[in-house]
Structures are given as C-alpha cells and as structure tokens.
Design goal:
Elements: E1 8-11, E2 14-17, H1 28-32, E3 35-37, E4 40-45, E5 48-52, H2 54-67, H3 76-89, E6 95-103, E7 117-124, H4 134-137, E8 139-143, H5 164-176, E9 181-185, E10 191-194, E11 198-203, E12 206-209, H6 220-231, E13 235-238, H7 243-247, E14 251-256, E15 260-267, E16 270-271, H8 279-292, E17 303-305
Parallel strand pairs: 8-9, 8-15, 12-13
Antiparallel strand pairs: 1-2, 1-7, 3-6, 4-5, 4-6, 5-17, 6-7, 9-10, 11-12, 11-14, 14-15, 15-16
Helix pairs in contact: 2-3, 6-8
Length: about 300
C-alpha cells in the first residue's frame, strides 16, 4: 500500500503537513504498543461526503483510551469535529480515517502512565481492504493456528494497537498458505473473528455470528449489518460457533470498516454453499452500501455530513 498525496494530518491540536507528522524514536507506543485506534470511512453521497457512524467510532475510541488509562481530553462531539475538519482540510470526497491515541516520548519501561498522551487523525483514499474483486467474487480464508487473545490477557474489547500483533501473525500465515484472510479461534476452539473482521454464517436463512464473550471486538459494521438484516425480516442469532459451522454454512461473510462486507467462498479449501457470493449476502451487501452512501432514508441518521 502506498499513500496517495494527502496534505494534512491533525496532530495534538493542530493540522500539520503530512511529512511533518513525526514522533521520536523512543516514543513509548513504538516500543510497547501502548495505543488505541479506530478505522472509519467517509463516503461520497448525493448530499456530499459523509462519515459512517462517526459518533459510535469516537465513543469507542474514548472507551478504549479509558481502559488503557489514557486521558483523551476531548468530548465525543469534539472528536467528531476534528475528523470532519481534517477531511475538509484535505478536500476529500471519500477516504479512510485513522484516529490514533498513543503514549508518546518521555519514559521507557512497561508502565506507560508517565508518558504523555498524543492524538492524531489521518485520512487518505483507500479502496476495499481485501481488494475490489472480493466484494463480488468473495474470498478464500483459512483457520489460523494462532488463537484469539484471551479476555484475561489482552482484552479484545479494547481496540488496542498491541492487540493487532496477534492479527498480523494470523494474516501473514494466511497469505503464506495462499488464502486472502485468516480466521482465528479462541482458546477453547470456538470461532472468534478474522484478523480484522467480524464473521457471519447463514444457514436456512438465519444469520449466526459469534458471541462477544467468545472474544471478539464489538464491531460497528457488525452492528449495522445486524440491524439491516433484522429490518429485512431475517433472524439474527448471536451464539458460539465451531469451525465446522463455517464449512456447512449456506453462505458466509465478513464485516469490518476496512473490508466492508465481503463474501467468503471457501474455508480451508472447503467450498461454502455454491462457492461464491450467496443471494442473502449480496442483498445485505447492497443494503449496506446504500446505507453508507446515503441512498436509504432510514439509515441517514448513521451519517455525519462533511
């Protein structure tokens, strides 16, 4: 991935030039992963650029920061305005948005609390995380040998920088084996999530998704798709799943801000359903993209217009 020309990043209270948004090499987060972040998208709509579920994302950012004892000294409303201002400053109609709160330079050692808290917001154009073809053709995934983090080790509920080292292991393994993405099980073998996505199985027109208590991040895209599915009249069940529930599903898909809504056509070489994007998955995918691009009146409350 190469970053296209974007002029400004918001950093610690001001907009700075992209190339000037730097940190010291002894920044605490660089050594110990002491940071939290969000992934958000802004879409072009008939009424101008709009950020999808910005308030929910920034509320989750504050919650993650609180759990790592980082004082993010802004209200949710102020955080939302910072995002909007950064998009405006870069004149972008569509973009990916990365807010990051991290412990900066000032102390070395495992207790990060003496280090200053820094905050940046970066925006840049970015297509679908797993490739544009993934949205129509689906992807192939493999169950990883790397297990999901335990709640009593590094809680998945916190969208922490350090947590994603585990995801990197699983993603690199998947790529080495020729898969587009990896799926992680928790410590007792239940299906948890992808390396950066929540998971859904469809069986007999019922949607199933792993429980939060099985070790998943409470995804905002996941929540959106569950609401959309219920509005269509589908039953959505949160329950524990095992890997064979993936193999025997009629349809299977993944959700996430970066990945959006991606069908899965095979897992561990086992074809799922008809081996492509299933009809319910495509129906939900279209409804999701209609929602994020402001084409559905019922979901416009999810949009913050720039």
């Amino acid at each position: 991935m190469s970053f296209p020309a974007v002029e400004y990043i918001w950093k610690n209270g001001e907009l700075v030039k992209w190339d000037d948004a730097r940190v010291h090499v002894l920044t605490h987060a660089l050594h110990y992963g002491s940071g939290v972040f969000e992934g958000i998208r802004c879409y072009e709509t008939p009424d101008g650029p709009a950020v999808f579920r910005l308030t929910e994302h920034m509320a989750r950012l504050k919650q993650s920061a609180k759990m790592l004892f980082m004082d993010l000294d802004y209200t949710v409303e102020e955080l939302c305005q910072i995002v909007v201002d950064t998009i405006k400053a870069n004149n972008l109609k569509e973009c990916y948005i990365r807010p990051l709160v991290f412990r900066g330079y000032g102390v070395m050692g495992l207790d990060p609390t003496p280090a200053p808290v820094e905050f940046i917001v970066a925006v840049w154009p970015w297509g679908s995380y797993l490739g544009e073809d993934s949205l129509t053709k689906g992807v192939e995934v493999g169950v990883s040998s790397w297990r999901q983090r335990s709640y009593n080790a590094s809680p998945p509920a916190i969208k922490a920088v350090g947590n994603y080292l585990n995801s990197s292991f699983a993603r690199m393994e998947a790529n080495r084996h020729g898969y587009n993405e990896g799926i992680m099980l928790n410590e007792i073998g239940q299906v948890a999530e992808g390396t950066g996505e929540n998971l859904f199985a469809i069986k007999d027109e019922v949607l199933y998704t792993p429980l939060v208590s099985d070790g998943i991040l409470v995804g905002i895209t996941r929540d959106s798709v569950m609401d959309i599915a219920r509005d269509f009249g589908y039953k959505v069940v949160e329950q524990s799943m095992v890997r064979t529930d993936i193999y025997t599903a009629d349809e299977f898909f993944m959700t996430g801000t970066a990945a959006e809504l991606v069908p899965v056509r095979a897992c561990d070489g086992v074809q799922i359903g008809q081996g492509g994007a299933g009809p319910i998955t495509l129906k939900l995918q279209k409804a999701y993209f209609d929602a994020v691009t402001g084409k559905t009146e019922a979901y416009k409350h999810w949009l913050t217009y720039v």
